[in-house]
Amino acid sequence: MHSENGETSSDPPAAGTTPPSLPEPERTATATQWPCAPSPADTDPQPALTSEPSDVPAEPGGLQERDRQLARTAIQTWGELPTSDVVAAVEAGQWAAVSADGYEDEAGLRIAAQTGQAAAVVQRQGLAPISDASADWAGFGDVIPVLSASPGAGATLVATVLADAMQIAGRRVLMVDTADPARSGLAAAARSDGPVLSGPHPAVRVRVSWRAQALLARVESDLPVISPGMVPPPRFFKPSNQSVQVTVVDVGHDAWRVAAHPLAGAGAWLRTGTPGPRPVLVCRATRPSLLHSEQVLARLDAWDRSGATTPPVQLVVVGARRWPTGVRGSAGRRVSALLDDALFLPHSPDIATSGITAEVTPKRLREAMTPLLRRWELLTPAASSAGRLPGLSRRSKGADQ
Predict the structure, then answer these.
(1) Which CA distances in Å does 287 have to 258, 264, 335?
(2) CA distance linking residue 249 with residue 178, whole number of Å
(3) Of 17, 84, 174, 348, which sees the most CB atoms within 10 A?
(4) Which three-class secondary structure state does DSSP give residue 171?
(5) 230-286 pLDDT, tens per residue?
(6) If we measure between CA atoms, which residue out of 179, 117, 125 comes closest to residue 147?
(7) For the chain, how are helix, strand and coil distributed in percent, rounded to 5?
(8) Number of H helices, E strands in the chain
(9) What does residue 146 show for φ and ψ, rounded to 5 degrees?
(10) Cα 165 from Cα 261, distance rounded (Å)
């Protein structure tokens, strides 16, 4: 209210009086204003519906009806197919249908059925996702699953550096790649492809190749996608005629989704067992990446407390030598417990440009990983200073520094 001298009063209006109305807002939006919603009077009247038939035939039921048809087809083999696999089968079916000349429902239904059938058969050959039974890791030696806090954080790089450091030191290493083949960061990690192991399904295979003296086991499929249930159980990745001391697993799937149900698909490598796995969580030296790390750990928390899975025991920070100012303080409660022992993997311009190839990872990256491997007693001082192995060539001059 205003007093007689024009000054604003803070006194409330007297009882029974009507407070002054506020001015109407401007209807013209500026660069710094949100435009106001138009009133009905400002809008043009709706055009009258024409009685003429459309030249374009309407699709019966539309996209939602096609999704339902694909979903029903996907669960024909197993009515209890997990939702994540049904969704993947529907997406594969839609892709197959639209990829054909025009839109072919038959192609989509066929691929959806094959995807659902493969997921149903593969996942029922491992421990049931609802089972809290421990895994027997004895045939895999020390198991190191590597998860990325978010896509692109560097889990594939960390897994490769770990494997290279140990095989150069004389350890018998198995590298496992659970990623969809089209999205794998290890597609060029071996000089040539090796044989295909038997099982678990004609459309889902594991191919084993040599990366120098380390075995590289990768998923292959004839289908457009690898759903969570199509990732073979761990036992299918191990060749029966090779002994293994250490298994390094590039989990290869979005850790946020894996953490929702880690006992299925690629998350099976986190299952508790004997000897216990040592999961590694990979992030970048940024606030968003630490936030993603906290979110992944929070999702895994209930599974870890139930004893079904093993929580990450090591944080690896890719592309930095230290925390930038102000970043460490943004860590949440769970990830803070891993900060003191965090290991930093410096930036490698060569790998950032070319990705993982059949060439050895740079020496300075392997040396950065050595303290962790010694702490875990996977390397001895003498072994870590061993020379390179035949078949694992150096990168261009200066890249191995």
Answers:
(1) 22, 30, 12
(2) 8
(3) 174
(4) coil
(5) 999 999 999 888 899 999 999 977 888 888 888 888 999 999 999 999 999 999 999
(6) 179
(7) 35, 15, 50
(8) 10, 11
(9) -115, 120
(10) 31
